[in-house]
Every structure is written in structure tokens, then in C-alpha cells.
Amino acid sequence: MDRAATAEKIAELIAPFNKKGIEITEASTFAGDLEFDSLTVMDFVAEIEDAFDIIISMNQQAEIENYGQLIDAVVKLQG
């Protein structure tokens, strides 16, 4: 799956978690802009892993701060 298709799928997955309806850009941060708490992050990561059949390690999660980085990580993990 290319980056654009991956971004589109992630956008669909993030919608239910975006409680405030924030406009999401590549620079949108999960903790700051979207105000995700640790439980929300865990639930969202589980959705991503299921949808793309990948595993995002805790180390990788710690490095992903914004939406653009998440897209890049998922693309890379899909190989």
C-alpha cells in the first residue's frame, strides 16, 4: 500500500478517536493537538495494528509524535 492510501486508511481509523473534530495535518501531534491520553493511544495503536496486520513496538510508539510520523512508520512496517 502506498503512502497516500495508507494515510487515507489511517484517517478513517483516527476519526472515532478525534473527539474534538480537530483538522488533522501531517504535523498534528497525538498528545498535544488531539489530546490523546495513554489509554486512547493504546486503543488507537491496536486499531492500526489490526487494520494493517503489523506490530508497532513500544520503542517505535515512543518515537511517533505526529500523524506524519505514524504514516511513515506504518508504510515502513508494511515493507
**Percentage of residues assigned to helices:** 55-70%
Radius of gyration from the alpha-carbon trace, in angstroms: 11 Å
The biggest beta sheet is recorded as: none
Number of strands: 0
What is the CA-CA span between the terminal residues? 9 Å
Number of domains: 1
- Run of helices and strands: HHHH
Annotation field: number of helices = 4
Which word captures the global form?
globular
The average pLDDT score comes to 95
Low-confidence stretches: none
**Category by helix and strand content:** mainly alpha
- β-sheet strand percentage: under 5%
Reconstruct the topology from this structure.
Blueprint: H1 3-14, H2 38-52, H3 58-63, H4 67-78
What does this structure look like?
- The protein has 79 residues and is mainly alpha-helical.
- It has one domain (3-19, 34-78).
- It contains four helices and no strands.
- α1 packs across α2 and α1 crosses α4 (67-78).
Keywords:
mainly alpha; 4 helices; single chain; 79 residues; globular; 57% helix
Brief description of this entry?
With 79 residues, the protein is an all-alpha fold.
